[in-house]
Amino acid sequence: MTRLSDQPNFEQFLLQPDRYNLRLLVLFRNIVIAAQIVTIAVVISAFRISLPLLPVSLWIGLLVLFNLATWLRLKSPRAVTKSELFGQMLGDIAIFTGLLYFTGGATNPFVGMYLLPLAISAAMLPWAYTASMMIVTCACYLVLLPFHVPLVRVGGELPHFHLFLTGGAINYAITAGLIAYFVFKVTTALRENERLLAKAKENELNSERIIGLGALAAGTAHELGSPLSTVAVVVKELQRDYQHLPELSEGLRIISDQSRICKEALSRLTASANHAQLADGSRLSLEKFLVEIVEKCQLMRPDIKVHHTIEGKRPAPEIFQELALSQSIINLLNNAADASPRHITMESRWNEQELQIRISDKGKGISPEVAGMMGKAFFTTKAAGTGSGLGLLLTNTIISRLGGSVKWFNLPEGGACAEVLLPLSSIVVPS
Predict the structure, then answer these.
(1) pLDDT in tens, 88-117
(2) Domains of the chain
(3) What span, in angstroms and rounded, lies between the C-alpha atoms of 113 and 116?
(4) Residue 348 CB: number of other CB atoms within 10 A?
(5) Which of 11, 164, 306, 350 could bond to 312 as cystine, CB 3.0-4.6 Å?
(6) What is the pLDDT of residues 391-407, one digit of tens each?
(7) What distance in Å separates the CA atoms of residue 306 and residue 329, rounded to the nearest whole number?
């Protein structure tokens, strides 16, 4: 089964931000290593600067090994700490200082790259670490002023001043680019974190609303039980008295079926109020579960034709009968029936990991403004008195609780579609 779209999975990084930052350090080192090799080749060939290649190569090789060791460390499930990040950057500074010692020290135009670990530290570590990083980089710079191997050209002459200007420009471009990229990645992660926090707060608020509605619904269920029982008795007597009138008998049969559905719904509410599970404990095949949902919808909306197709490996997996999930799908079917009062389509398919349900109608479709509000509390496009805005909220909450998602979109041929994606592991009976 192929999803229509896959959202970037930021959660795995935001749950462990220090691990994500260490991955960024590995990426930056790869860029720096490549830049160092290219720069050394250009300096030797184009500017004819004499460099001690053996110690320079050893320091670059040490950086390569250090980065490889960090990459292997990231494969460990052990959490990355801020102290470890600080230690990693100290290792970078030590290697960079050793490299600068053999390439002109503080006179090397690339000495300004000390700002890169300082900027990264300021963005990802507490102030104490950043202050320590500032002291370390300043100390390294001061040490390199008197102690270094001078840069000279082949033949022993000193480099011209314009070579330092060129090197300084290249250093500025590389450092500015790396800092800009790092800040962009960090701010992107922060914005995504804010979005996820806002979503979590909204889900928490919705849960509180649903708890309040549950308490109110349980009380209402007790109040409606007696009137519905009276209706059932009266309808039964009318069916007996007017069984010779086919048209009236058919109408009474529909009333009897609808009152029975109401009684079943109220019984579930009462059970929930007594802390019973929404799943009744019974098991059945996924295919039968989906067929029963459509049959129940047809019973509730006899004027609607539901075209149902099922695809998936047979025999279908066995699941727990989750009544809350059944109700959430029926809510989507009812919404589609309201938009397309004659014909709707439900497509069900599954693979070993996921169940996908698509419910399509032939209505006018969904505007972008409405699509952004679907599933929000008390939002409805129905006329006043005909919709409460709670059906889709309940559907969203139930499916999210099971680890799934619901989204709505317009179809190219017209009409709208509600798509449910649900991991089978949340409902399937363990083998």
Answers:
(1) 999 999 999 999 999 988 888 888 888 888
(2) 11-159 (no CATH), 279-426 (3.30.565.10)
(3) 5
(4) 24
(5) 350
(6) 677 788 788 888 888 88
(7) 13
